[in-house]
TrEMBL record, chains A, B:
GO terms for biological process: DNA recombination; DNA repair. The gene is recR. Belongs to the RecR family. A zinc finger (C4-type) spans 57-72. PROSITE patterns: RECR, TOPRIM. SMART domains: TOPRIM. Pfam families: RecR_C, RecR_HhH, RecR_ZnF, Toprim_4. Residues 80-175 form the Toprim domain. The keyword DNA-binding does not apply. May play a role in DNA repair. It seems to be involved in an RecBC-independent recombinational process of DNA repair. It may act with RecF and RecO. Keywords: DNA damage, DNA recombination, DNA repair, Metal-binding, Zinc, Zinc-finger. It comes from the Bacteria. This is Recombination protein RecR.
């Protein structure tokens, strides 16, 4: 067996991908090295290029190979609303799912004092400078609906109040198509508290 | 959106991996470029190295970065039995699952005249030379249990007869733990035909 050979090393490194275990990595490695050599080469090269060139947008901190990302550069987007998200992936998710036309600000995580992640690590100093300019009128706090996400949203909400900017949090409740029977207690109790009048 | 940017290219190329769709590729790309940069670099580099160095073993045709693979080089392995498989992945699978201590021969496919894959493309000329040497006493035909795999096994069986080498085919029937109710007709009919006396 080529356990310690190059092939095994390829498999080991493929295992670092999310959701890829040893079996899948083995299948991937054989496919890349046998049937798909051109694409494998292109993948490796584009990955190296991306690692070298992609950094953070200087304004919204999302991933980009330019100084400013395409959303920050886009003059057609509303500069008065800012959507705060935890990760660059969330920028894509929100942009694909909603009609939001404002800009984003990426925290790259959430407040987690035990892990040494405070306001500065999340770029909240940059966010404050942005708010101080007075252009932004509304913050949409789209951090995850977790304890840490809520705490982070609360903290940023305070910042917004300080700078007299309106802040809102994504609605939380029963997901579309969700059947009550299968919904966890926390969500259901939230949905009850946040019930809306039918007009 | 960075649809045409480097990030999007990385995602596109990740989609070529087996079992990876656009959503998974997106998650992989973000993970590689954000949290896992060192491993991403190592993966890209080892992949390029593997693509450049890994070729086929000159004796059994499996993937290896050396002239002969580790199994062919291993003097402790039985040189009188040869297991014929369709792909290098099958070499690993058989070696991990069984106590087989012989050597392998990799076809890299199966006979498929319509696709222009004949005996020469499968290295059967090399196999014949190997059989002609007289060292091999038994062939185990472990091609897939498909129409093409069966046809290929039959063809190689003929070769074996010509060289007076004994050939055997993997047993086919009900898989271990398989419940009759969920087994397809073909398998069940095979299992009936191939039933064995209880001693």
């Amino acid at each position: 067996m080529q356990k310690k050979g190059l092939l095994h090393q390829v498999i080991q490194h493929l295992c670092c991908l999310p959701g890829v275990g040893p079996k899948t990595a083995q299948r991937m490695a054989f496919q890349l090295l046998q049937r798909n050599r051109d694409n494998a080469k292109a993948l490796a090269e584009i990955l190296l290029k991306a690692l070298a060139e992609i950094g953070h947008c200087q304004q919204c901190r999302t991933l980009t190979e330019h100084t400013l990302c395409e959303i920050c550069v886009d003059a057609s987007r509303d500069t008065t609303t800012l959507c705060i998200v935890e990760s660059p992936a969330d920028v894509w998710t929100v942009d694909q799912a909603t009609v939001f036309t404002g800009r984003y600000f990426v925290l790259h995580g959430h407040l987690s004092p035990l892990d040494g992640i405070g306001p500065d690590e999340l770029g909240l100093d940059e966010l404050e400078r942005l708010l101080a300019k007075g252009e932004v009128k509304e913050l949409i706090l789209a951090t995850n609906s977790t304890l840490e996400g809520d705490a982070t949203a609360y903290f940023i909400g305070e910042l917004a109040t300080k700078h007299k900017v309106q802040a809102s949090r994504l609605a939380s409740g029963v997901p579309m198509g969700g059947e009550l029977e299968f919904i966890d207690r926390g969500t259901l109790s939230h949905a009850f508290k946040g019930r809306r009048k039918i007009e």
